[in-house]
Amino acid sequence: MVFSSIPFLYYFLPAVLAVYFLTPRKGKNAVLLLASLIFYGWGELRLLPLIRALFREVNPAPVKAAMALLGYDCGQCRLPVGSIRPETLARLRELL
Question: Which pTM was predicted?
Fold first, then answer.
């Protein structure tokens, strides 16, 4: 699904906005997270584990680690963001 498609504009977006505005303040972030996972999973369901792994820790550390695994030299993260945990790096290796 793309942002300019008919299903997104006429079905998905209005449904998400309705649920978002009817949800109490505490649950709004959960609604947006769920809507994002549904949106990205709609097009490429196989990428959801990678998205989950990339957001397992503070960004941009996992993204930089994934880019390094793909062969792109993007340097280290500046403080206060450090490097990622070994188990996250292992999961990224597995998925990439």
Answer: 0.67
